[in-house]
Design brief:
The complex is a heterodimer of chains A (about 675) and B (about 45). Chain A has about 675 residues and is α/β, with parallel strands linked by helices. Chain A has 30 helices and eight strands. Among the domains of chain A are: about 1-160, P-loop containing nucleotide triphosphate hydrolases (Rossmann fold), CATH 3.40.50; about 170-260, Helix Hairpins (Orthogonal Bundle); about 520-665, no CATH class. A six-stranded mixed beta sheet of chain A has the order 2-3-1-4-5-7, sandwiched between helices. In chain A, strands 6-8 form a two-stranded antiparallel sheet. In chain A, strand 4, helix 3 and strand 5 (about 105-110) form a beta-alpha-beta unit. In chain A, helix 14 (about 285-330) packs antiparallel against helix 16 (about 355-370), helix 21 (about 435-445) packs across helix 22 and helix 23 (about 495-530) packs across helix 26. The longest helix of chain A has about 45 residues, at about 285-330. The radius of gyration of chain A is 29 Å and the shape is elongated. With about 45 residues, chain B is mainly alpha-helical. Chain B has one helix at about 1-25. The termini of chain B are far apart. The chains are: A alpha/beta (about 675), B mainly alpha (about 45). The interface of A and B includes residues 36, 49, 343 and 517 of A.
């Protein structure tokens, strides 16, 4: 049995999905977190699958989310739909409900956020709402897990009802047109599996995808033209507006009946007051930069660093214990080197950054869950518009700061094809979290007093170069204007500790998993290549190893950037498997533990070289997983290769400028 | 003796890691807990 969750963006679908299935999907207090459908079993009932569909405002396919949802409803035919409604925004949320009624499918309405409704002093007559709509309505609070089990029971009962009767929403000219067209198109609609009256409404709306499927003949098209024209004259408006008006007239009348007492939306008032400061046309961006500086300072110089140092002590202690044990067991020299210089130094150097990453994502989750990030998207719209994108591209870019792969996939939320492709190309410029250990290591080595500031500088550099690259794309490949940006600003709320801990734990877990998979294998390969010379003899002098030969072959390319050392070149190349591999490679090649790596680097290279290394690493092409995602989204291998090549050329040129300008002063 | 045991353990770990990497790559290269890919370890039913 299938139950699908359908509702507006940011109305709590994923929260309800997590409560119903006991899973741990990412939740964010900004619209557009869910891009594709997600499924899970209903808790305690393995026969029932719950599907979380992307948030939508209507079933008219303007964006990919709307297409995903509508296709799912028609093609997969769920046994029951749970329509989640944000009860604090009843009128707007009911617009989608009305369209579900038109589709004549069985559904249950979950009136979510009832705790907030009560707090605001609003009173909704749930029984009356259910009677008027002809569907069961269950008041719930998904975040507090109130009413969720009752909702599941009602949904299971409703799933046994296969069809829902058409609900007449209108009268007058629209009513006449709907009925006339329903008779005319009955046979075509039945062949396609659509209810006749729903089909009639879609034809009046001029929904091209439905009209194409109906395969109408000339005579039918002619009659449709006449009926619609008569309706337009009678309503004194165009066909699409007539249907929208019909729905909103019904909703207005319905709300007048069921909302018994309209209270003050306390949260909304507080949010509006805060927005006057946080979205101020002058102060918004400086405030955002200050907030991010504080986040970096807490993560890299204060709490995160302290925790990472503590973990490093633990890793070093364990390395010492194993080192001693291996020596006393009389293990052969090469195996000893493989375990200590390779595995322990390589994997340990990445693992030691896990606490920093977790603290950073804990803090970023606070910004996201409180609703602040949605404001940042709104503020960024103006800036993004200048490079030919809209604020809608900000969400994928924001996700890209965590990991480029989901960021690139999240670009599917962008409705215009031009904007989507441009977003896909710009997301890899956003500095992903896998690069954080590199920044942390390099800033610790060369700029220990200004770690947070340099870190912010690196992020700003990645964004500025991204903006310039966007401008270049705008005047060359992607000429045209971005689509208008409409986004709902959610009310500010206190972040849920459970969500914050879950988000940071998931990020930490992903790092640990990567350390024991990609980094572990990369470390073994790197150790082997740096311990064997070209005649395949074991050597303790890594400068005559195969890896050194490869590095030396490539290093002339990087020499103009101040990165001619073969060990730096090698780490840049291994970074293509996963960015964390840069740090583990340096640890293996310098043959030191994470604790001493920064000290070794600071004596081997100058701060300018350190900064150039940072600049190149932040900007050059992403890891193979992200390249695969770009290829998938652009639909062409060649385009992906070209995009990655151009990004690396941009990185090269920017670093070249930094190095040459830097040498004038240093 | 210890050499052989350690090499065997390392080889097993490396094989397990490679299998995991290949599995992750098949799933699109991400760890399966991200916001957009819509997969989750417990409920991977896509």
């Amino acid at each position: 049995m299938n139950i699908a969750l359908v509702g507006n963006q940011n109305c709590g679908k994923t929260t309800l999905f997590n409560q119903l299935t006991g899973s741990k999907q990412h939740i964010g207090n900004f619209p557009g977190v869910t891009v594709e459908q997600k499924s899970g079993y209903l808790l305690g009932n393995k026969d029932v699958t719950v599907v979380d569909l992307p948030g939508i405002y209507s079933l008219t396919p303007y964006s990919i989310e709307e297409i995903v949802t509508r296709d799912y409803i028609f093609n997969r035919k769920p046994d029951c739909i749970i329509n989640i409604i944000d009860a604090t925004n009843l009128e707007r949320n009911l617009y989608l409900t009305i369209q579900l009624l038109e589709m004549e499918i069985p559904f249950v309405m979950a009136l979510n956020m009832m705790d907030e409704v009560r707090l605001n002093g609003t009173s909704i007559d749930v029984k009356k709402l259910s009677e008027e709509l002809g569907v069961p309505v269950v008041p719930i609070s998904a975040s507090k897990n109130e009413g969720v089990s009752e909702l599941a029971e009602v949904a299971l009962g409703r799933a046994k009802v296969k069809n829902s009767a058409y609900h007449d929403l209108c009268d007058g000219a629209v009513h006449k047109a709907v009925h006339s067209l329903a008779h005319l198109l009955e046979e075509n609609a039945e062949k396609c599996g659509f209810p006749p009256k729903y089909t009639a409404i879609k034809v009046i709306e001029n929904d091209k995808s439905i009209i194409d499927k109906l395969k109408l003949d000339e005579r039918q098209l002619d009659i449709i033209g006449h009926i619609v024209e008569d309706m337009e004259i009678a309503c004194d408006t165009d066909r699409e507006a007539a249907i929208v008006d019909m729905r909103y007239d019904y909703i207005e009348a319905l709300c007048a009946k069921v909302v018994l007492k309209k209270g003050q939306n306390v949260n909304q008032e507080k949010s509006m007051k805060l927005d006057r400061i946080l979205t101020h046309k002058i102060w918004a961006i400086p405030i955002f930069l200050c907030v991010m500086l504080a986040v970096f300072f807490m993560s890299f110089s204060l709490v995160g660093k302290w925790l990472s140092d503590l973990l490093t002590l633990g890793i070093d202690w364990l390395t010492g214990v194993v080192d001693g044990a291996l020596t006393s067991a009389g293990i052969s020299e090469w195996l000893h080197s493989l375990l200590i210089d390779g595995v322990f130094n390589g994997v340990g150097s990445v693992l030691s950054f896990v606490p920093t990453i977790m603290v950073l994502f804990f803090l970023l989750s606070i910004l996201e869950d409180s609703g602040y990030m949605a404001r940042v998207a709104f503020v960024m719209d103006k800036l993004l518009r200048k490079i030919g994108l809209s604020g809608k591209s900000f969400v994928p870019m924001l996700i890209g700061f965590g990991c480029s792969v989901p960021g690139i996939l999240a670009a599917r939320t962008v409705s215009s094809e031009r904007d989507r492709k441009m977003t896909v190309l710009l997301v890899p410029f956003m500095s992903c979290s896998a690069k954080l250990p590199i920044y942390s290591l390099i800033t610790m080595a060369f700029f220990p007093r200004y770690q947070a500031l340099v870190m912010l500088g690196v992020y700003v550099l990645s964004m500025v170069v991204g903006v310039l690259y966007g401008l270049l794309l705008k005047v060359t490949v992607f000429k045209g204007n971005p689509v208008p940006f409409v986004m709902e600003l959610p009310n500010y709320r206190w972040p849920s500790l459970k969500t914050l801990l879950r988000n940071s734990w998931e990020k930490g877990k992903s790092f640990i998993r990567k350390a024991f998979t990609v980094i572990f294998v990369a470390t073994l390969v790197i150790w082997f290549l740096q311990s064997v010379d070209t005649s395949f003899n074991f050597t303790s002098d890594s400068s005559v190893s195969i890896l050194a030969e490869i590095g030396r072959f490539l290093s002339p390319v990087f020499a103009p950037l101040g990165l001619g050392d073969w060990r730096l070149t090698t780490s840049i190349i291994t970074g293509l498997t996963a960015k964390e591999a840069v740090v583990s490679t340096l640890a293996v090649l310098f043959g030191v533990a994470s604790e001493s790596l920064s000290a070794v680097l600071s004596t081997a290279f100058s701060p300018l070289q350190g900064f150039c290394f940072l600049a190149f690493v932040v900007l050059y092409m992403p890891c193979v997983a992200a390249v695969a995602a770009v290829r998938k989204e652009l639909g062409s291998g060649w385009k992906a290769v070209l995009a990655m090549f151009s990004q690396t050329v941009v990185a090269y040129l920017v670093t070249l400028i930094i190095y040459n300008v830097g040498t004038l002063f240093v | 003796m210890w050499d052989i045991i350690i090499i065997a353990v390392l080889a097993l770990c490396a094989a397990a890691a490679v299998i995991k990497i290949v599995k992750d790559k098949k799933r699109g290269g991400c760890d399966g807990n991200c916001a957009a890919c819509g997969r989750n370890k417990k409920n991977n039913r896509r």
